[in-house]
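Thread: Modeling a multi-component assembly for a lab meeting

Hi all, long-time lurker, first post. My supervisor asked me to bring a structural picture of a complex we are working on to next week's group meeting, and I have zero experience with this. I have the sequence lines for every component (652 residues in total). Could someone generate the structure of the whole assembly? Inputs are pasted exactly as I received them:
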Amino acid sequence: MNSLILSAATRFLAPLMLAYSLFILLRGHNEPGGGFIGGLVAATAFALYAKAEDTGAVRRAMRIAPELLSMLGLGAAVMAGVWGWWEGDAFLESVWPFLVVEDGKKEGLPVGSALLFDVGVYMVVVGAVTALFLALEDDASRSPDDEDADQSGER
Amino acid sequence: MLLALPIAVPFLTGVVCLALRASPPFQRLASLIGAAASVIVASRIAEAVLAEGPFAEQMGGWPAPFGITLAADMLSAGLLLVTSICGVAVVLFGFSEVEETSELRGHHTLLHVMLGGVSGAFVTGDLFNLYVWFEVLLIASFGLLVVRGGRRQFDGAIRYVALNLTATIGFLTGVGLLYGATGALNMADLHRAVAEIDDPRKLYATGALLLFAFGAKAALFPVFFWLPASYHTPSFTVSAIFAALLTKVGVYAIFRTFTLIYPPDTPYLAEVLMAAGALTMVVGVFGALAEREVRRVLSFSVIASIGFMIVALSIGTEAAIAAGVFYLLQDMFLKVALFAVAWLAVRRGGSEDFRLSGGLWPVAPMLGALFLLPGLALAGVPPFSGFWAKVLLVDAALAAEAWWLAALALGVGLLTLYAMARMFSELFWKPRPAAAPALATERPPVPIPALAATLAMVGIVTYIGVQPAPFIAFAQIAGAQLADPSAYIAAVLGGTP
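Re: Modeling a multi-component assembly
Sure thing. I ran the full set together rather than chain by chain. Output:
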């Protein structure tokens, strides 16, 4: 699309949405939010950017193929589970390396395997939704001639 | 941790395969290693169940029934083991058959994610978690259907997804209602909670929704029509693993739900299962007789086999459930073998369509002999595994005085033999029709990985047929654990059986 208003607004909105998605991701630890919904907000930012500019711009801005991002996220989530098993007893058990409990009070940083899991989910959602969106957007903006060529692969 | 590995290993393999997406050789290597690792994991689980009976693990350390429990009894362990072996065979088979474009688009990743979803469904002890695994394997299987691209593939995939989504919604609604009625989701806990339901309407409504959902996944009459509409469109590799695993997940869910959650003496349950199973057998075998394309015939034969398993469950005695488990497990190998030999024959003959095929026997007699073996096994001819499956089933039916079921099973077996013989004759014995393109006079190069996988599957099916005792013993333990789930419940919830 070629709209000055959209493209100017996106330059302001997309970073804001991305920052907000991180906020939702971290907030999700104890309050509504989390990796899934945060990932959707981030994917919306990329979708907006794709509409304002084009899909190539989004791919360049992401620097990493969205499919790969989602797979790395899946790996991170699985590793969070394995970490809990390694340190604790059960797969997916929460591990808090920076948290010490003294006199019934928790001291330190509540960062651990639960956050790694949530970050993994965030990456899966951003990657998968963006990949889907970019693929659909590429298809929609392609000329009819290309489509004929595409179907020659059919058997 | 052991019980989480059948899920974690395929998922990690999928991740590695995607990371190696640009280079098919490395991707194949990773895929094969991952599939082999799953076999090791599954055999460790089977060993543990054999030694100590059913056992469970609480994910995240949350005790049952509050957290998500993974649990394995003999049925789960057997299914995991057979799934992983079929996984190796199909990965190997795919090396010969799947086009490189599909591999570049993520065939291996999708395959392993699907295997992870199937394994998850087999080990989970939580009804809602079972729904999640159904979703995982549905999404991955959707990807596998369309990874090749092309109009026919999309057509098949849309039918597949439409009915499966309907079934999934039924499943979700059923789980929601059941949770509303009992406040429980853990399957072992539901065993107690469902027995306490006083209003029979709640029992019937939830049970009927779950049976509809699982029946649709298993391709049970009357919700089977999505299967022959979609299984012939993807690559043979994908058809083979779908036929081996996906309907079996539905069968597993029916076995688990209607022995553990709903007591087998729930009113109308045995009658409904028996009617659905018997009709599925009949529709499946007549469908196989009517079709005129290799994979459409095989798709209907998948449906007929599902009928046998459900009929076995509906008889409800311990021996009958054991027969159902034996049928279920050996059928998975058999389905891979059937689709594998079908590809070898179609590759040589050039077409799946009976009108454009024939005359293969003079040029490829060895292939013809190989082609016959799984078909005979499916029909229940000795010395293959299918023979013992039918012997056990008919024996259990006679012991329970269900004469007509025994007669029906034998009749459908005979018609299956006819359907398989017809397919053999159409591809091999019949003179080649004039409309068909001429056969290549030179033998094409032997696809070594595919042939190895095929021979392994046919070998396993024959071995079970020749040495059935340990496998039948295995199935009998599984049947006993299903008929009396107290050990499973004790393993999940703690306490002594």
